[in-house]
Amino acid sequence: MTDSQRTTTAIHPLARRRTLRAIAIFEAVKGIAALALMVGVLDLIHRDIRHLAMELIGHFGLNPDAHYPAILLQYATMLSDINPASLVLLGVVYITVRLSEAYGLWNDRAWAEWLAALSGALYIPFELHHLLYRPSLINAAVLASNAFVVGFMTYQLWRRRH
């Protein structure tokens, strides 16, 4: 074995571990962001969200019939109609999955690689549809990063098996 082959095989496990840990950090950040979002949304549940949105639009002197203010009002109306118990349940499940996945990936667990591959693969058709109908660099980057994670996790699982 040459020196360059030894260096490549010595670096490869380190690069693999760093990639797993980077993905674990990303998943943990998504879980913590979801927790913060859920707390913020729950704080708004007992308020007239549509009224708050109208005040915000008026504060900035925007036309409520314009595209983005109308979208804000649409989501404010939707949020008012949501059952808080369902929202909490959905949020807790999502946060638990993301933080569990992060823990497992950080500790190099096979179950976490399965979870990351499967949960990431679920989003790909939606991201692809979104990119096709609303092409943008951000949508392309989200799809590419998710495809990378799914591909890397699939490779990890294949590597464990062989």
**Structural classification:** mainly alpha
Spatial extent as radius of gyration: 21 Å
Beta-strand percent range: under 5%
Number of domains: 2
Low confidence ranges:
none
Question: What does the model show?
Answer:
With 162 residues, the protein is mainly alpha-helical. The chain has two domains: 1-106; 109-162. It is 86% helix and 0% strand. The protein contains six helices and no strands. It has helices at 3-45, 49-59, 67-80, 84-106, 110-133, 137-161. The radius of gyration is 21 Å and the shape is elongated. The two termini are 22 Å apart. The model has no long low-confidence stretch (mean pLDDT 88).
List keywords for this structure.
162 residues; mainly alpha; 6 helices; elongated
Structural topology:
Blueprint: H1 3-45, H2 49-59, H3 67-80, H4 84-106, H5 110-133, H6 137-161
How is this structure best summarized?
The protein is mainly α and 162 residues long. Helices cover 86% and strands 0% of the residues.
